[in-house]
């Protein structure tokens, strides 16, 4: 959801940028060019921050996948041990009777 909101925000900024570029091409003032430069810098900063966040999320996802795999292995081992113990108990009960 956060990424979609960010994409929408950046799309809006892109539209504003396109409008400003069009006005610059028609011979706008120095102030308009300066404002466009600031907007471009803001977008570059936002993209850098988003990239860092995406890399962080990806790294966290990879760590969780490794953790999940380790836990699944542990569960499988414990299930095997439980089955072995149940068979042993059943065997002992059968020998008693």
UniProtKB/TrEMBL annotation:
Domain of life: Eukaryota
Coiled coil: 54-95
Keywords on record: Coiled coil
Name of this protein: Uncharacterized protein
Organism of this sequence: Vannella robusta
């Amino acid at each position: 959801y956060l990424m979609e909101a960010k994409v929408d925000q950046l799309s809006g900024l892109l539209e504003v940028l396109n409008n400003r570029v069009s006005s610059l091409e028609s011979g706008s003032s120095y102030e308009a060019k300066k404002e466009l430069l600031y907007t471009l810098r803001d977008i570059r900063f936002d993209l850098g921050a988003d990239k860092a966040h995406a890399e962080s999320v990806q790294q966290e996802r990879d760590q969780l996948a490794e953790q999940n795999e380790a836990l699944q292995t542990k569960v499988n081992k414990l299930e095997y041990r439980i089955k072995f113990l149940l068979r042993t108990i059943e065997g002992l009960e059968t020998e008693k009777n």
